[in-house]
């Protein structure tokens, strides 16, 4: 990529940012296309290259857009034999000093035909007060010049100042209109339009500023990328994992006779319900990114978007089922079954994975958590299967079930028609989790095994799911770890290549030391990033966007 491409890239970058800051592009299209103007990069002192030209200018000068791009803003390609040299110098001086220029000058089209032009060059400043662009507005006044009679010339000598002021005011009005269109100052309301027109026609020069306009939002609107929202999302994520762990455990392991155990977790369950309800309220006041990539701040649009997406799921998950205890509901298992709808909250976790996909450590933690959560769910199902086998009337089946075998090993067998004794809930859960993790990771020791038909069918399903999860989770884990150490590996590879080069070419020790120090210093500055490659990609993207916008 040569110097001209770099100049073009810098200018186009500013131009694209300028165009993307339009408050309503449809409002500006007509006026921009009807105007004869060019935009030049004021931050590149080497000729101030042109980065954009309107269709009207191309039609006026007879040049194609590709022929005008990257040429100097002084428009030397329009100069000819009769062009005033003093005006040429004034244009160059105004560009160097970054001041406004206005005047009547003779230009030449591409075919060589001359035309009189009202030229108005205006600098555009950013929010820091630095001039970043030049706007040059052109108006063909050849017909006006030709129609001037000798009597008019005498009158012009008397009223020259008035006539010149008329021409300049007309040119200024055109350039100011273009400037206000580009800067995004035109609004949809007629009231604001009248205010802008008053600013346009005043004699006092007011250079427009090129800067990103502040988004207008209510103070009660919460930014989706704010620090508070990020912390709140992590709190909701922890609450979701709490629900995903406790709800299946309570459904499978806690029976109707364990009301005291259930009541011990009532406080934490109510706290989670309150968090979910508050989260629903916050989601009605949180911004979001539309499909077009625009951040939406309007409260009505936010409400409609949330109601049509996640509101129903969040509402079901936030239903306060623990209030049933206030009505003396003693069927604990029914309450636990109703709470399983809160697992729908896990669907929101997929949305979080997209957001944190660039953070390898977070993705690695979430993947391992999902794997452990799956093992926990399957342990709950494994216990239910063993419990159903134990409660079967057939003496043969429950004597060979995994719970019966576990009870005998722990010297706490079942007795009294299979309703008394047996291992504790804690021991049964640990054994079930041990079995499911062994099956999911394809490591089985046989001390907890499937004996009945139902247990064997579940074991087969567990092995199949384990093969899929092993490929999915640990495949991603391997890729993430490789990505985390990719820079480290690249550093050592390039260091080895450099040392091999030095050894093959028998370079002296002093030069070898300088080369290694230079490489290490350069790496510490750019961390191995190839700036030329990045600039080339940006160069291609900006060229394509400029072509589309042009």
Describe the structure.
The chain is α+β, with helices and mostly antiparallel strands. The chain has four domains: 3-210, PAS domain (Beta-Lactamase, 2-Layer Sandwich); 215-355, no CATH class; 358-484, Helix Hairpins; 494-549, Non-ribosomal Peptide Synthetase Peptidyl Carrier Protein, Chain A, CATH 1.10.1200. 61% of the residues lie in helices and 9% in strands. The chain contains 23 helices and ten strands. It has helices spanning 3-20, 25-34, 55-61, 65-68, 85-97, 142-146, 150-183, 190-200, 227-253, 259-264, 266-283, 299-307, 311-317, 332-339, 347-355, 360-390, 395-400, 402-409, 425-440, 453-484, 486-504, 509-526, 531-549, and strands spanning 37-41, 50-53, 101-108, 114-126, 131-140, 209-210, 288-289, 295-296, 414-415, 420-421. Strands 1, 2, 3, 4, 5 and 6 form a six-stranded mixed sheet that branches. A two-stranded antiparallel sheet has the order 7-8. Strand 7 and strand 8 form a beta hairpin. Helix 9 packs parallel to helix 16. The longest helix is centred in the N-terminal third of the chain and has 34 residues, at 150-183. Residues 1-33, 153-164 and 183-207 have low confidence and may be disordered. Its main location: membrane. It is a multi-pass membrane protein. It is found in: Membrane.
